[in-house]
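For reproducibility, we list the full input for the fe (ii) ion complex.
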Amino acid sequence: MADKPFLTDIKTLRERARRHIEKGAVTEGYKADRETAVKLLNEALATEIVCVLRYKRHYYMATGIHSEAVAAEFLQHANEEQGHADEIAARIVQLGGAPNLNPDGLSSRSYAEYVEGETLLDMIKEDLVAERIAIDSYRDMINYFGNDDPTSRRMLEGILAVEEEHADDLVSMLGELGN
Ligand SMILES: [Fe+2]
Ligand SMILES: [Fe+2]
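The corresponding predicted structure, in tokenized form, follows.
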């Protein structure tokens, strides 16, 4: 097989890098639409924060015979969602955007919903629904970023894998509770 040609010659790469250095990580070779990328990542950020708040609520409100193990799981998920929010916010800044942390409109920017749930079982089901929404929305975003923004894509792939684990944990919990 013939060697793949190097995509941009070194001289051009060096010249391009010197222009607009204030844009930091966003170079002329950045292929995604930056505004759309920031908008999508802000929606992901809102989703993660809503998930933190919902899991925290569930953590504090979990009662009943099975509550201890389930509450521990809720807390772990809350902390992992917070980690995702932090990763996403940092990426937004790298792309020259600003993380939208305004509580006004938070739940409408989020894909997942904030549902309190009455019983432990309701809480687990609502969390599972929210994870499934997050999984599908991340899959769409991953397709959007594709090779145009591989850094955002890889970040979201990592997050997606954790959301799938969360969904799996929740299904196991449902099974243990006899549903
Ligand atoms: Fe998450
Ligand atoms: Fe999750």
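The longest helix spans residues 34-61. The two ends are 56 Å apart (CA to CA). Both points were considered when choosing residues for closer inspection.
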